[in-house]
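Re: duplicated header lines in exported structure tokens

Our pipeline writes sequence and tokens for each protein into one text file. With two proteins the header for the second block appears twice in some exports. Here is an export where it did not happen, for reference. First protein block:
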Amino acid sequence: MPKEYRTIQEVAGPLMLVQGVEDVAYDELGEIELANGETRRCKVLEINGSDALVQLYESSTGINLSNSKVRFLGRSMELGVSGDMLGRVFDGVGRPIDDGPEILPEERRDINGLAMNPAARSYPQEFIQTGISAIDGLNTLVRGQKLPIFSASGLPHAQLAAQIARQAKVRGKDEQFAVVFAAMGITFEESNFFVESFKETGAIDRTVMFVNLANDPAVERIATPRMALTAAEFLAFEKGMHVLVILTDITNYADALREVSAARKEVPGRRGYPGYMYTDLATLYERAGRQVGKDGSITMIPILTMPEDDKTHPIPDLTGYITEGQVILSRDLYRRGVTPPIDVLPSLSRLKDKGIGEGKTRADHANTMNQLFAAYSRGKDAKELMVILGEAALSDIDLIYAKFADAFEKEYVSQGYDTNRDIEETLEIGWKLLSILPRSELKRIDDKFLDMYYGKQ
């Protein structure tokens, strides 16, 4: 029987100080029982001698210092995991919110998980098809990779996230594929959009959703991605599934981290974020990957909105250090009606070379990818020159490149949120666009591929 303490000394916002505690550990879960019998959850943030500083998962309204009791449960926060979680929607702390029955857990797991031993990691090298040309063709996603999407306020990252969750699949083999979707600090409308989007297409049947709304407590927001990753680890490494984890929005998560840090009166770091934010984000991102001897894998797509469109802001900056590349959304392309507005030139997938080629996508993939990058870059330069000097100042070949850049954005990048292109279709569109250019300009493509594909569309 856990001890009960009636020694609450102070409540300040989401924090509460309990004195005279014994054998209580950092991160331990607790229960506060109010005078009317209502219970609320909390966790230990700090231990100083016999004083415990705890953080509430719910509101502190109605807590009477003299009448309320605190019990510490002797364990950290856990999630009951089961194969029955697929097709279900949970709140930020793992309680079902889809009017379905409670989950009967196969086991209970600490949500903080364990870091994967680097020696036990298997190198990511299998292609995941998202059905989006700008990702599959140019910034290929590989199984076990962490590939964030850098968005900005007002850009359609929610639609892109829902599209990837609906369309992503492992090609060829008949392997089990699941999506774990965690939404942090989103509005009710956004939450509803995701749930309805998955239900319409039947994708909900292979999806586990964790939803933390904007009006939920900040401490719950910190638990939500850990809940999602705990479910993903169970499905991947116990059930042998290939799991895609989508976390949106990491900016809301980092803001919750800053709020908790400020409440604890910690010394702030850059832009007021805690100095340990890099370590904290790494404890999330590094739970993705493949393990030697295990069939399953966890591939992660964290989505974050860059405050003031600033790539040097601490959140995208630190995320870029930990992950293997980034997909960047462009406000300029969005204004011009390109959907999804993926800016392919600053985007990067550091593991793409491992996931493409013969037996994975197609033998000509690497050549066409390099040529498309080079041609689009030169086309954009030609268009900028045209703005400054006028069309008459451009050479004939520069005009062709400018035409190519427009066609590339319109036909290759812009495909809408309902079009699902397989990799062959993406490569065919690439060859069709490259056929705009004279064959003599295609210096990055092997002659044997030019003979097979150039001008054949």
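Second protein block, exported in the same file:
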Amino acid sequence: MLKEYRTISEVVGPLMMVEQVEGVKYDELVEIQLQNGELRHGQVLEVNEDKAMVQIFEGPSGINIRDTKVRFRGKPLSLNVSEDMIGRIFDGMGNVMDDGPEILPEATLDVNGQAINPVSRDYPDEFIQTGISAIDHLNTLVRGQKLPVFSGSGLPHKELAAQIARQATVLNSDEKFAVVFAAMGITFDEAEYFMEDFRKTGAIDRSVMFLNLASDPAIERIATPKIALTTAEYLAFEKGMHVLVIMTDMTNYCEALREISAARREVPGRRGYPGYLYTNLSTIYERAGRIVGKPGSVTQIPILSMPEDDITHPIPDLTGYITEGQIILDRALDKQGIQPPINVLPSLSRLKDKGSGEGKTRKDHAPTMNQLFAAYATGKQAKELAVVLGESALSKTDKKYVEFTERFEREYVGQGFYTNRSIQETLDLGWELLSILPRTELKRIKDELLDEYLPEGE
């Protein structure tokens, strides 16, 4: 029998202190009935003797301490899951948000989940094609990987997220592919953009969307990525699907963590974020991967906007430690009209070599990738030299590198948000651009590959 308490002693921000409680456990789900009969929900954050600290998901406004009733449910926050969730839109707490019927659950799962046991992990080594050249060729995404996108305020990360959700697919696989899209703290206009884009392009037919709006209580943002990942794990490991989880914006999630930490009067860490920010982020990111003996997988693309474009800020800094690389959006490229504005030089996918090559993409993938990186870096240096000394100071070869760099940014990186290139098209475009340079400069590619792929007459 559930006990009911009227012993609230304090409400501070999204937190509520309940005294004289018995048998309450950490992470336990809580029902809060206001004096007007309204029902809200919460979760136990901390238990100390007969006191329990509860975080209120819907916010504390209107709570009368004397007349509000609190019931501890004896179970953690859970989610009803089903394969029928594909094609549907939910709010940040997993409640149906579209005009469709309620989901008939196939299972009820604890949203907290846990990281995959390292002994059970299968190594990520299967290529995922996003249709974006700067990712597929130069920073390859692999099934089971976690590859974040580092953006900045005002940069088009929402367009990039929608493009990946539309275009991503696992090549040469008969298994089903699904996208779980989780948005945290986005504006109503952004939510409308995602819903409209997914519906118009048909991406909604293979997607599950969770939308937590900026107008929703910040406390709900803590639950949104957990709910999304619980759905992804069910589809992957129970239904055998390849699942790509796109989460935007992780910065809003971390801001919500900081708000709770401040309300708990905890000693702040760097820039006011809690000292356990690394641990908390790892509980989310480490839920990506593959399990030995199971066909499904969970691949993550978390998107975060770096405050003041500072890559040393705690959020991108800690994210980079936990994940396997990063895709960096560049403001200078964006101002030039290059979309998506991916800066390939500081971007990195630590598993790119595992998902490319003969039998996965093409045998010329790695050599052309290395050559493009080298040529682009040399071309950037030549352009900087021309700014200082003038173009007349450049050699004939330097001018070829400058031409390569300009075309590389304009044609290869700047493909637009609605161009879906196969990996073969991307590799062929790479060879076309490399043909601008003298053959003697292509030192990272073997002669037999140059004979086979380099366009004739160059």
